[in-house]
Amino acid sequence: MADTFNYRIDHHGSLVRPAELTAARAAGDPEALKEAELQAVKDAVVLQRKLRSTVVTDGDFPREDFRSAVFDGVSGFRRTDETDADGLVRWVAESLPKANGPLLADWVARLTELTVIAPKAALPSPAYLAATTFRPGHGPSSARELGEALAEIVLAEIELLVSKGVRLIQLNNPLLLGQLATDPADPGTLSFEDALAVDALAVRLDERPEGVRIAVAPGPVAPATLDLSRAEKLYGEIGADRWILPFDQGTPAELALVKALPEDRDFCLGVVDATVPALEDIDTVMARIDTVGEFKDLEDGAVAPSRGFADVASRPLLSAEQQRRKVELVETVARYVWGNEF
């Protein structure tokens, strides 16, 4: 499906928050925070243009973490005092969710005013939210029921974003790759089959305008041992146009994930590790991509960091300068692969 809309230089959406924004959030003045968020987004757009990204995001700057677009704009969830190992605050679904308005569309409108680069929007997948917020005896009768209700909200938001000119929308489900192992991780409250069914509901656009890509990021790390039948089921059940896959460790499982992808799907390779400051050796990265080129049309590909740099605002993985160097390396890799035409 090679065409001119592959957004070669990509990133997952979250960026390291600037010190001024962090200070404004800590100060607790709502009006000052709004001004700081808008200025931070403006600066982030300039940065992404300088780094020659082919997409632009708001860096998740207006949000606490990568799930917050839903938790901030949807009723039915209760915040708890607990956090998980990644620093994510735990939320509990106490009733079936209901959207109180657009989730990301207002911020996307600001992006379109700031640049002609294609805006990208990222949302948590409904299956991920259902798996992590459902608790028996609290509201919804099952995680599947909760997930299906969330899928309708996410699909409606995707349709709204597309109508406003967004051409790349990413759903994040960090749990999926763990379910592809030969000894899969515990699915928790939502089975692998139910997770696929729920996320499939959220990407079922009846029509996709030219250049639109609905992407899924199924997790930042490929399992050590991969069950290919489960990988094929993942791709077969969820009708996403683009898959954002980890490709920064050089493991056989990473390569197998790309190889199992159907020919009619785009792929975006996470070629640099967003968790370590050291820069990758570009010859090593290119050798890995050359291997992919032996069985995939690289015209259907793109490159990105392996994950978001600050999926939780208070826990950035790198400094802002280290982040810049990583994204610059991604841009260099893209030029090695595709020249100057994106």
Task: Give your account of this protein's structure.
The protein has 342 residues and is an alpha/beta fold. 39% of the residues lie in helices and 15% in strands. The protein has helices spanning 19-27, 30-50, 68-73, 105-114, 126-133, 143-163, 192-202, 228-237, 252-259, 282-293, 320-338, and strands spanning 74-83, 89-99, 120-124, 168-172, 213-217, 242-246, 266-272, 301-305. The strands form two sheets. Strands 3-4-5-6-7-8 form a six-stranded parallel beta sheet. Strand 6 (242-246), helix 9 (252-259) and strand 7 form a beta-alpha-beta unit. The longest helix has 21 residues, at 30-50.
Task: Set out the fold topology.
Elements: H1 19-27, H2 30-50, H3 68-73, E1 74-83, E2 89-99, H4 105-114, E3 120-124, H5 126-133, H6 143-163, E4 168-172, H7 192-202, E5 213-217, H8 228-237, E6 242-246, H9 252-259, E7 266-272, H10 282-293, E8 301-305, H11 320-338
Parallel strand pairs: 3-4, 4-5, 5-6, 6-7, 7-8
Antiparallel strand pairs: 1-2
Helix pairs in contact: 1-2, 5-6, 5-7, 6-7, 10-11
